[in-house]
Amino acid sequence: xxxxxxxxxxxxxxxxxREAICDAIADAGTTxxxxxxxxxxxxxxxLSRQVTLVSAVQSEVGxxxxxxxxxxxxxxxxxxxxxxxxxxxxxxxxxAVIVCGTxxxxxxxxxxxxxxxxxxxxxxxxxxxxxxxxxxxxxxxLQVHTGLYGTTMEQVASVAVKNLRNAAANExxxxxxxxxxxxxLASAPVASPYRVLDCSVLSxxxxxxxxxxxxxxxxxxxxxxxxxxxxxxxxxxxxxPLVCLVGSGAATAPARLGDRMVDGPAGVANFSAKSAAAKI
Length: 280
Known about the structure:
Blueprint: H1 13-27, E1 37-41, H2 45-48, H3 53-60, E2 68-71, H4 77-91, E3 96-103, H5 111-119, H6 134-149, H7 153-167, H8 181-186, E4 189-191, E5 194-195, E6 205-212, H9 214-234, H10 266-269, H11 272-278
Parallel strand pairs: 1-2, 1-3
Antiparallel strand pairs: 3-6, 4-5
Protein backbone atom coordinates (compact mmCIF):
# COMPACT_ATOMS: atom_id res chain seq x y z
CA UNK A 1 0.00 0.00 0.00
CA UNK A 2 1.21 3.49 -0.83
CA UNK A 3 0.68 6.45 1.41
CA UNK A 4 -2.69 8.03 0.61
CA UNK A 5 -2.72 11.81 0.27
CA UNK A 6 -4.59 14.64 -1.40
CA UNK A 7 -2.10 14.80 -4.26
CA UNK A 8 0.99 12.84 -5.27
CA UNK A 9 2.17 15.65 -7.54
CA UNK A 10 5.34 13.91 -8.67
CA UNK A 11 3.86 10.45 -9.28
CA UNK A 12 1.58 8.98 -11.92
CA UNK A 13 -1.18 6.47 -11.39
CA UNK A 14 1.20 3.83 -12.80
CA UNK A 15 3.89 4.80 -10.28
CA UNK A 16 1.44 4.30 -7.43
CA UNK A 17 0.33 0.91 -8.73
CA ARG A 18 3.93 -0.22 -9.17
CA GLU A 19 4.78 0.57 -5.56
CA ALA A 20 1.71 -1.17 -4.17
CA ILE A 21 2.08 -4.31 -6.30
CA CYS A 22 5.81 -4.72 -5.74
CA ASP A 23 5.36 -4.23 -2.00
CA ALA A 24 2.53 -6.80 -1.87
CA ILE A 25 4.55 -9.41 -3.76
CA ALA A 26 7.61 -8.82 -1.58
CA ASP A 27 5.50 -8.89 1.58
CA ALA A 28 4.17 -12.29 0.53
CA GLY A 29 7.73 -13.57 0.23
CA THR A 30 7.40 -14.45 -3.43
CA THR A 31 8.25 -13.06 -6.88
CA UNK A 32 6.27 -11.80 -9.86
CA UNK A 33 7.33 -14.92 -11.76
CA UNK A 34 4.99 -16.99 -9.58
CA UNK A 35 1.97 -14.72 -10.12
CA UNK A 36 -0.48 -15.95 -12.76
CA UNK A 37 -2.70 -12.93 -13.39
CA UNK A 38 -3.26 -9.26 -12.58
CA UNK A 39 -6.64 -7.69 -11.82
CA UNK A 40 -6.52 -3.90 -11.66
CA UNK A 41 -9.22 -1.63 -10.25
CA UNK A 42 -9.45 1.96 -11.49
CA UNK A 43 -12.52 4.15 -11.71
CA UNK A 44 -11.70 6.74 -14.33
CA UNK A 45 -9.47 6.96 -17.40
CA UNK A 46 -10.13 10.71 -17.38
CA LEU A 47 -8.73 11.30 -13.91
CA SER A 48 -5.85 8.86 -14.42
CA ARG A 49 -4.98 10.32 -17.83
CA GLN A 50 -4.08 6.82 -18.95
CA VAL A 51 -6.21 4.64 -21.21
CA THR A 52 -5.54 0.87 -21.13
CA LEU A 53 -4.05 1.37 -17.71
CA VAL A 54 -3.68 -2.32 -16.93
CA SER A 55 -1.22 -2.81 -19.79
CA ALA A 56 0.89 0.12 -18.62
CA VAL A 57 0.97 -1.27 -15.08
CA GLN A 58 1.62 -4.84 -16.22
CA SER A 59 4.72 -3.70 -18.07
CA GLU A 60 6.12 -2.09 -14.92
CA VAL A 61 5.79 -5.00 -12.50
CA GLY A 62 7.16 -8.01 -14.37
CA UNK A 63 3.79 -9.48 -15.34
CA UNK A 64 3.93 -9.31 -19.14
CA UNK A 65 2.78 -12.29 -21.19
CA UNK A 66 0.18 -13.14 -18.55
CA UNK A 67 -3.54 -12.41 -18.45
CA UNK A 68 -4.44 -9.01 -17.04
CA UNK A 69 -7.69 -7.10 -16.82
CA UNK A 70 -9.04 -3.84 -15.50
CA UNK A 71 -12.23 -3.79 -13.42
CA UNK A 72 -14.41 -0.69 -13.07
CA UNK A 73 -17.46 -0.47 -10.83
CA UNK A 74 -17.45 3.08 -9.51
CA UNK A 75 -16.80 3.21 -5.79
CA UNK A 76 -16.97 -0.58 -5.66
CA UNK A 77 -14.11 -1.05 -8.16
CA UNK A 78 -11.65 -2.36 -5.57
CA UNK A 79 -14.08 -4.82 -4.01
CA UNK A 80 -15.20 -6.00 -7.44
CA UNK A 81 -11.60 -6.58 -8.52
CA UNK A 82 -11.01 -8.60 -5.35
CA UNK A 83 -14.09 -10.71 -6.05
CA UNK A 84 -13.02 -11.20 -9.67
CA UNK A 85 -9.64 -12.51 -8.53
CA UNK A 86 -11.32 -14.89 -6.09
CA UNK A 87 -13.51 -16.20 -8.91
CA UNK A 88 -10.42 -16.86 -11.04
CA UNK A 89 -8.95 -18.93 -8.21
CA UNK A 90 -12.17 -20.86 -7.60
CA UNK A 91 -12.55 -21.63 -11.29
CA UNK A 92 -9.05 -23.10 -11.54
CA UNK A 93 -8.04 -20.50 -14.13
CA UNK A 94 -5.29 -19.21 -11.83
CA UNK A 95 -3.40 -20.17 -8.69
CA ALA A 96 -2.07 -16.74 -7.73
CA VAL A 97 -3.64 -13.38 -8.65
CA ILE A 98 -2.41 -9.94 -7.67
CA VAL A 99 -5.22 -7.43 -7.13
CA CYS A 100 -4.47 -3.71 -7.18
CA GLY A 101 -6.57 -0.58 -6.91
CA THR A 102 -4.91 2.65 -8.01
CA UNK A 103 -6.35 6.15 -8.36
CA UNK A 104 -5.43 9.75 -9.07
CA UNK A 105 -8.22 12.16 -8.21
CA UNK A 106 -7.47 14.98 -10.60
CA UNK A 107 -5.86 17.54 -8.28
CA UNK A 108 -3.84 18.81 -11.25
CA UNK A 109 -7.05 19.44 -13.22
CA UNK A 110 -9.59 22.25 -13.02
CA UNK A 111 -12.01 21.71 -10.14
CA UNK A 112 -15.01 22.17 -12.41
CA UNK A 113 -13.75 19.51 -14.82
CA UNK A 114 -13.14 17.06 -11.98
CA UNK A 115 -16.68 17.62 -10.68
CA UNK A 116 -18.03 17.00 -14.17
CA UNK A 117 -16.07 13.75 -14.51
CA UNK A 118 -17.39 12.45 -11.19
CA UNK A 119 -20.92 13.49 -12.13
CA UNK A 120 -20.64 11.38 -15.30
CA UNK A 121 -20.69 8.35 -13.01
CA UNK A 122 -24.40 9.05 -12.66
CA UNK A 123 -26.67 8.35 -15.63
CA UNK A 124 -25.15 10.57 -18.32
CA UNK A 125 -28.36 10.64 -20.40
CA UNK A 126 -30.93 11.52 -17.74
CA UNK A 127 -29.35 12.53 -14.42
CA UNK A 128 -26.15 14.30 -15.47
CA UNK A 129 -27.88 16.80 -17.85
CA UNK A 130 -30.11 17.86 -14.94
CA UNK A 131 -27.03 19.12 -13.09
CA UNK A 132 -27.00 16.35 -10.52
CA UNK A 133 -23.96 15.85 -8.30
CA UNK A 134 -23.09 12.81 -6.23
CA UNK A 135 -23.37 14.65 -2.90
CA UNK A 136 -26.88 15.70 -3.94
CA UNK A 137 -27.88 12.14 -4.87
CA UNK A 138 -26.61 10.76 -1.58
CA UNK A 139 -28.28 13.61 0.31
CA UNK A 140 -31.65 12.84 -1.28
CA UNK A 141 -31.28 9.16 -0.38
CA LEU A 142 -30.41 10.08 3.21
CA GLN A 143 -33.43 12.36 3.46
CA VAL A 144 -35.63 9.43 2.49
CA HIS A 145 -33.87 7.19 5.02
CA THR A 146 -34.33 9.66 7.88
CA GLY A 147 -37.99 10.08 6.98
CA LEU A 148 -38.70 6.35 6.85
CA TYR A 149 -36.62 5.09 9.74
CA GLY A 150 -36.10 8.07 12.02
CA THR A 151 -32.35 8.07 11.48
CA THR A 152 -30.77 11.05 13.20
CA MET A 153 -27.85 13.12 11.96
CA GLU A 154 -26.10 12.33 15.23
CA GLN A 155 -26.18 8.67 14.20
CA VAL A 156 -24.88 9.54 10.74
CA ALA A 157 -22.11 11.71 12.22
CA SER A 158 -20.99 8.83 14.43
CA VAL A 159 -19.92 6.99 11.26
CA ALA A 160 -17.42 9.74 10.41
CA VAL A 161 -16.19 9.77 14.02
CA LYS A 162 -15.60 6.01 13.91
CA ASN A 163 -13.91 6.04 10.50
CA LEU A 164 -11.48 8.84 11.33
CA ARG A 165 -10.52 7.14 14.60
CA ASN A 166 -9.96 3.83 12.82
CA ALA A 167 -7.68 5.58 10.33
CA ALA A 168 -5.29 6.41 13.17
CA ALA A 169 -4.25 2.73 13.17
CA ASN A 170 -2.94 3.05 9.60
CA GLU A 171 0.16 5.20 9.25
CA UNK A 172 -0.48 5.50 5.51
CA UNK A 173 -4.04 6.79 5.84
CA UNK A 174 -4.87 10.10 4.20
CA UNK A 175 -6.51 11.58 7.27
CA UNK A 176 -7.17 10.55 10.84
CA UNK A 177 -8.67 12.55 13.67
CA UNK A 178 -10.19 12.21 17.10
CA UNK A 179 -13.33 14.25 16.54
CA UNK A 180 -16.73 14.41 18.17
CA UNK A 181 -20.23 14.10 16.79
CA UNK A 182 -20.73 17.77 17.63
CA UNK A 183 -17.74 18.74 15.47
CA UNK A 184 -19.14 16.80 12.51
CA LEU A 185 -22.52 18.48 12.90
CA ALA A 186 -20.84 21.91 13.12
CA SER A 187 -18.80 21.48 9.93
CA ALA A 188 -19.79 23.32 6.76
CA PRO A 189 -22.84 22.10 4.82
CA VAL A 190 -22.33 20.30 1.51
CA ALA A 191 -25.74 19.01 0.43
CA SER A 192 -28.38 18.97 3.14
CA PRO A 193 -28.26 17.14 5.46
CA TYR A 194 -24.62 16.16 4.77
CA ARG A 195 -21.76 18.21 6.20
CA VAL A 196 -18.10 18.38 5.15
CA LEU A 197 -16.92 15.93 7.81
CA ASP A 198 -19.56 13.40 6.75
CA CYS A 199 -17.87 13.14 3.36
CA SER A 200 -14.95 10.94 2.36
CA VAL A 201 -11.78 12.66 1.19
CA LEU A 202 -10.49 12.39 -2.38
CA SER A 203 -7.17 10.58 -2.25
CA UNK A 204 -4.31 9.69 -4.56
CA UNK A 205 -2.93 6.25 -3.74
CA UNK A 206 -2.86 2.53 -4.43
CA UNK A 207 -3.24 -0.72 -2.53
CA UNK A 208 -2.60 -4.32 -3.56
CA UNK A 209 -3.06 -7.83 -2.21
CA UNK A 210 -1.97 -11.26 -3.46
CA UNK A 211 -4.67 -13.94 -3.49
CA UNK A 212 -3.56 -17.56 -3.83
CA UNK A 213 -5.04 -21.03 -3.62
CA UNK A 214 -4.20 -23.39 -0.79
CA UNK A 215 -2.29 -25.56 -3.26
CA UNK A 216 -0.16 -22.60 -4.36
CA UNK A 217 0.48 -21.70 -0.74
CA UNK A 218 1.71 -25.18 0.08
CA UNK A 219 3.90 -25.35 -3.02
CA UNK A 220 5.34 -21.84 -2.97
CA UNK A 221 4.51 -19.83 0.08
CA UNK A 222 3.99 -21.91 3.20
CA UNK A 223 7.64 -22.21 4.16
CA UNK A 224 8.41 -18.52 3.63
CA UNK A 225 5.25 -17.50 5.49
CA UNK A 226 6.12 -19.70 8.46
CA UNK A 227 9.70 -18.38 8.53
CA UNK A 228 8.45 -14.80 8.45
CA UNK A 229 6.02 -15.53 11.28
CA UNK A 230 8.78 -17.18 13.31
CA UNK A 231 10.92 -14.09 12.83
CA UNK A 232 8.08 -11.86 13.98
CA UNK A 233 7.61 -14.00 17.08
CA UNK A 234 11.34 -13.92 17.84
CA UNK A 235 11.33 -10.13 17.62
CA UNK A 236 8.37 -9.83 19.96
CA UNK A 237 5.99 -8.84 17.15
CA UNK A 238 2.59 -10.48 17.00
CA UNK A 239 2.51 -13.22 14.31
CA UNK A 240 0.34 -12.54 11.29
CA PRO A 241 -2.72 -14.76 11.01
CA LEU A 242 -3.44 -16.80 7.91
CA VAL A 243 -6.37 -15.11 6.16
CA CYS A 244 -8.82 -17.34 4.29
CA LEU A 245 -11.66 -16.15 2.05
CA VAL A 246 -14.73 -18.25 2.84
CA GLY A 247 -17.20 -16.54 0.52
CA SER A 248 -18.24 -13.38 -1.28
CA GLY A 249 -21.36 -11.90 -2.81
CA ALA A 250 -22.23 -9.03 -5.10
CA ALA A 251 -25.30 -7.32 -6.50
CA THR A 252 -26.14 -4.03 -8.18
CA ALA A 253 -29.04 -1.67 -7.54
CA PRO A 254 -30.55 0.41 -10.37
CA ALA A 255 -28.14 3.12 -11.45
CA ARG A 256 -30.69 5.93 -11.46
CA LEU A 257 -31.99 6.99 -8.07
CA GLY A 258 -35.51 7.40 -9.43
CA ASP A 259 -35.59 3.81 -10.67
CA ARG A 260 -35.10 2.61 -7.12
CA MET A 261 -38.51 4.04 -6.19
CA VAL A 262 -40.52 1.62 -8.32
CA ASP A 263 -41.92 0.03 -5.17
CA GLY A 264 -42.01 3.25 -3.18
CA PRO A 265 -39.53 5.50 -1.37
CA ALA A 266 -38.09 2.59 0.63
CA GLY A 267 -36.33 1.42 -2.51
CA VAL A 268 -33.99 4.41 -2.23
CA ALA A 269 -32.99 3.66 1.34
CA ASN A 270 -33.26 -0.07 1.98
CA PHE A 271 -29.86 -1.15 0.61
CA SER A 272 -31.46 -3.76 -1.64
CA ALA A 273 -28.19 -4.58 -3.42
CA LYS A 274 -26.46 -5.32 -0.10
CA SER A 275 -29.33 -7.57 0.93
CA ALA A 276 -29.25 -9.40 -2.39
CA ALA A 277 -25.47 -9.81 -2.23
CA ALA A 278 -25.71 -11.34 1.23
CA LYS A 279 -27.87 -14.14 -0.18
CA ILE A 280 -25.39 -15.17 -2.87
